[in-house]
Amino acid sequence: MTQTPGEYGVSNRIFFRLFQLGNTLQTRSASFLGVTAVQWAVLGALSAERAISGIALGDLAEYLMVSRQNLDGVLKRLERDGYVERAVGPTDRRARIVRITPKGRSFWDNLERRIGEFYRSATLDVSQEEKQSLSRLLDRLQANLKAMGDNGSGEAAG
Known about the structure:
Strand order of the largest sheet: 1-3-2
Number of domains: 1
Number of strands: 3
Structural class: mainly alpha
CATH architecture: Orthogonal Bundle
CATH class: Mainly Alpha
Radius of gyration: 18 Å
Strand content: 5-15%
């Protein structure tokens, strides 16, 4: 189905704003929090209760929706700083798992407090209802984008 020029313009503006927002998040998180957005996401994923014993490298890349190559570079920096470690998988010696270290956990706990302030500043004039609505809309966009790759037709499933 073809979009009208008006629909195309609005869609173009949405996706361009998402692009800009991603870049702004990257620069602001680095200056405000001292970590990149990807480092923040990795530490957040590894600090979750379900990740106590670690996460397989491939599963972590899939969860974060980043390539294994990009994730590897981020992990090397986090390992260098002593925040994460890679270990041999418990059932498959060829598999690698990633887990947060005690130093990384302490860093995350401190960072998480600053993240709350980051969120408050970034959403200062956005109501709770608007945040929930935006979250649902972004979930739908993400599902549609994922479906484009899954069904091979270029059309979102639906």
